[in-house]
Amino acid sequence: MSDSQSNRMNYQKEAQVIRRSILLDAPLSQVWNALATSEGLASWLMLNDFQPIVGTRFTFSAEPQSNWNGIVECEVTQVDELHQLAFTWSESPARLIRDGAAICCDD
Description:
alpha+beta
């Protein structure tokens, strides 16, 4: 294995976690409603049948693409109302626990 291949593989392992912080000039309840309700998520992400209940499986759905059926399988893993929401997602239910999102809100 060449040095560049080794570096690329290490980068891919480290790139599995993406963190992003943003400051929004809005009341916490408004931000939470956009992130943790079915209607809020649909307004900026994808249609869904989301419910903020730990253990609930839900789907995001969008227009199918040539190599994607338009469905994302998800499961809610954490809810602390107004403060934290986490869920997994995957195009394949077999990979459901590998990918995910965690959203934290601080006032």
